[in-house]
Specification:
Length: 301
Amino acid sequence: MALSDNSRGAMLMAVSMAGFTFNDALTKSVTGDLTIGQIMFIRGAFTTALVYVVARKLGALDHIRNIVQPLILCRIAFETIAAISFLMALGQVPLANVSAILQSLPLAVTLGAALFLGEPVGWRRWGAIIVGFLGVMIIIQPGPEGFTVASVYVIFSVITAAGRDLVTRRIDRTVSSLTVTLFTAASISMAGLLITPLFGGWQPVSAWTLGKLVIASVFLFAGYQAVIMAMRVGEISFIAPFRYTSLLWAVALGMLFFEEVPDIWMVIGATVVIGSGLYTFYRENKRKAALASKIDPGSPA
């Protein structure tokens, strides 16, 4: 049986989250050895090369004039800012906590879709969005003992990533996803090179560290491509909740490789955030079902 657009979008979103989380774990493992700028430049360069080879082999490279358009440039800007803020937090915040805060992204996307794309959101989903962001506050523990500036960086990365996803939705479907991925990766790599002096300059890179970043770039490529395809295939309200699969990977990888055991506040906050997101998903499906029944009430008896 052929998969619907939403089903394919959901599968692609789950794949993208696995790719991004494995990339995050590998990147976190080198944050003590390299600067943020170096990580962005090296990982981005390998990702760019990988995407270029694949895109050229598939004949999926668009002309440069198809890329130099406001929406794609805006997406690249959002992605670059999100990458910088995320990496600034990754070395200081447990992987599971970072992932838990990122689970608010579907709520941010729903909020953005309502405010900027005109998608209808009822009072129940507005309530769920508010509750979800309260869950984020539980995770970051905004008090003198629990709060860290690094948590703000993660929240800022959520905001900019939501902007990226909303812009992606508006990009002309005739533009190749691989081309968008290529220029995004190249832009992030160049941005990393430019900001390297601001974060301590160039540090020696060992073969072991370089190898980790090469593997991370493969996972990053998979994440980039899958999330772009997902946002362009399915409905945002349907596929966004599948981002939650990344938390499972983050908890497992954090415990296995970084000896990071999630605390009770992370568990409670993540539960609130995910519960709120799933509720918005439920309300959206119910709303669409009601609309469909009004349009097609069924054949007369």
